[in-house]
Here is the input.
Amino acid sequence: MQWIQDLFEKAQQGLFEIAIQPILFSFGLGNFLEDGYTATGWLLVGLLQIAVLLAIIGPLQRWRPVEPMVDAQAVRTDVLYTLLHRLGLFRVALFFSVEPLFDDMFGALRVAGLNTVHIDQFMAGVTDRPFISFVMYLVVFDFVDYWIHRGQHGLNWWWSLHSLHHSQRQMTMWSDNRNHLLDDLLRDSLLVIVGQLIGVGPGQFVAIVAIAQLSESLQHANVRLHFGRIGERLWISPRFHRLHHSIGIGHERNASGELLPNGRSPALGGHNFGVLLPWWDVLFRTANFELRWDPTGVRDQVEQGRNYGGGFWSQQWLGVKRLVGKA
Here is the structure.
């Protein structure tokens, strides 16, 4: 993996010196050069991801679409969400808002004697094998993300935010980042805390996020694709994840918004909660491997005409109103 890391670092340095550093100096932000260099890494990852979306996943959607696209405006809104997150604008906002709070919190914990636990050091020889260490951290993060996703569906107040993600009736490769900003803030904060506690390195964390985001873009793509009997149980496919979004199969709620078991999963809120690995759904009996391609959306959106908003700001505002019980 070293040659990949070296190539990325050269590209990051070049992009920083050509574009980001001059901007920081022109606005008198020379004291943020180190942070700007880190932000350049996230920007580069985002640009590479968008290139993969356009060059590979986009053609897959045109090759074997599940359904025709009839609402271009909804897709354009999802593109806005994707650019906001993948190009690092959301992370810049976090940097100036909550990251100082995290720095103070972790500093206080270390002063109190609670240090980071590097989980790869518990197994002999792992620290000398970066790829094995990387896989270990990826599995741990995915396990945590599975339970975060269960919480997003199982807790009514959290579902009031997360339901925005499920309100897209036309899923495409752009739909992964269609989330309420408060939902993203909470999820990202939990993952950052876990990363600090288990000692994942900055480079490993960036790589894990990049792989996860690309995989999730493929999962949401409008493509009739599954990985076969064995592959479906190794990595989450578009078919597996589409069932998580399916109306009346992926999640069930009554007219009062209360969660109901759906007969296919013992968990409230549906099934197929895995982010990268279907192992956790299999282990906790929330997996559904039916080979089907159902319409997506939220039940109350379809049956009761509940409005989840058409544009970015209306979607964010309605999410806040749902959270306080006013929508």
